[in-house]
Write a structure and sequence with these properties.
Glutaredoxin, binds glutathione, single chain, alpha+beta, 5-stranded mixed sheet
């Protein structure tokens, strides 16, 4: 059990991993907000959490971490979310999940199916409750529990709630890692600058992690965490150019979109069906924006309900800011985003 005081201390230590103080900001008007978020502007899972915080108009301290390593004049600069102080804080959250560490690579990032990855964002600290929570899905559900106003994202009615949670589970299983990092053999429509970054990403990750193991050899908890991450990322490196693996990830995504079309047509959920805006809409919204960024929006050309759903989602102010604008501002330019950049202006006007 970590005391509240030591959690606050660990949070401050993790915050120090953010090299540029300009990336530590207050969102909202509170000088001492209850929540503190470790995240990255470009990260899909972080965008989900920030969209929920936006929907709920919650104030928070934002620690926008650099999650890609870079080669500088002094050698490799490791990603900030690999910093020992941040990992220690994440391990506090990990203990409450009661899951094994991730041990391989599937292209998915779900804790449910893959285990706990100790070296990722986002992470939420609730200073008032003295709690730290890992995993975007869990963070979103937690925020909905502790803050019901002005928007409740999980319905009270058991059937509606079960359907929203079913959709949440489906989005969690989209192989987002494979789609972002992988080189598709037939139609790789990702922006060229992104592809370029992805050519070295695994080598930089593995190099940084090995160095962190060497530097922290006397700390078995940290070493175990970094080893788990190496197991995952070396698996990713093996399949990022594997045609069959990449085709399978695309096929799986196509099937999940076909299921989404069926569910939207049946009206089982979705604010496009006149239901209250829910956590399922947040998560689908962020994920569809990401698929669009990667040049994959043609996957729903023949799915009219998904097409309409995406058009509406792109106009939602929270999604415009936290998914569309955040991607435009933090990721290499993508010509596929032109289609939604207007929606953003409309929603924010
Ligand atoms: N299931 C986790 C997955 C977290 C995750 O994979 N985060 C990605 C960004 S969306 C990350 O930190 N990637 C950097 C890395 O793996 O080094 C969640 O939803 O929070």
């Amino acid at each position: 059990m970590t005391s509240r005081a030591s959690l606050i201390e660990m949070t401050a230590a993790a915050r120090a991993a953010v090299a540029d103080p300009a990336r530590i900001t207050l969102v909202g008007s509170s000088p001492e907000p209850r929540f503190e978020l470790f995240h990255a502007a470009s990260s899909l899972c972080s965008q989900k959490v920030r969209t929920v915080l936006h929907e709920k108009a919650l104030a928070y301290r934002s620690n926008d971490m650099r999650i890609l390593g870079a080669m500088g004049s002094e050698g490799l600069v490791p990603a900030e979310h690999y910093d020992p102080a941040y990992i220690r804080l994440r391990l506090v959250a990990g203990r409450t999940l009661k899951r094994d560490y991730v041990s391989g690579y599937s292209g998915r990032t779900s804790v449910e199916s893959e285990g706990f990855d100790p070296c990722v964002v986002p992470l939420l600290v609730d200073r008032e409750a003295g709690r730290v929570i890992a995993d975007s899905q869990r963070i979103c559900v937690y925020l909905d529990e502790v803050s019901r106003e002005p928007a409740q994202l999980l319905p009270d009615a058991p059937d509606a709630r079960a359907e929203v949670m079913r959709q949440v589970g489906i989005v969690d299983r989209i192989p987002n890692g494979a789609l972002l990092y992988g080189f598709h053999p037939d139609a790789d429509l990702r922006p060229d600058a992104l592809k370029e970054a992805m050519r070295t990403v695994y080598d930089y990750k593995l190099m940084a992690l090995q160095r962190l193991i060497d530097d922290n050899a006397d700390d078995p908890e940290l070493v175990a965490a970094y080893r788990a991450k190496i197991a995952k990322e070396s698996g990713g490196k093996k399949v990022c150019q594997d045609p069959e693996f990449q085709r399978a990830a695309r096929l799986q995504t196509a099937q999940l979109l076909a299921d989404l079309e069926r569910d939207l047509a049946a009206g089982t959920f979705g604010f496009s069906n006149g239901r209250a805006f829910s956590l399922a809409d947040v998560l689908w919204g962020v994920n569809l924006v990401r698929l669009n960024y990667l040049g994959l929006a043609s996957m729903w050309d023949a799915l009219p309900h998904v097409t309409h759903y995406f058009e509406l989602l792109a106009k939602r102010p929270s999604l415009c800011r936290e998914a569309i604008r955040a991607s435009l501002d933090s990721m290499p330019p993508s010509r596929w985003m032109e289609a939604v950049a207007n929606c953003q202006a409309e929603a924010l006007a």
